[in-house]
Amino acid sequence: AMESAYRVGLQTQMPLRKIYWTNGHSRKFQIGNELIEVRKRQNQSGLLLSNTPAGVLYRGLSVFEPRSLKLQQLQTACERLALTENERAKMKRRLLNSDLHPCVQQLLIQL
What we know:
6 helices; three-stranded mixed sheet; single chain; 3 strands
């Protein structure tokens, strides 16, 4: 989620380690010098949207304080995804049907 927020410009710091989501059990294990963390995701929207543009934006928004998000930040995030108008409309529909905070959904409506 933090990496997605970084990729779409919602934050400026690149996360140092990756956390993977699962619908199975949470666990940690080590491969070489890297610690891998797999966390159970309580809501399934992030997993259902997978690696779609809507999923990238959903994960980025999920770590952001909803009330502090500005329309300009959301517009910048959408521009970084480089979507066509059709793709942007599809992404918007999928996100409006997800469990994002109502404040974020209001901003999506304004896009």
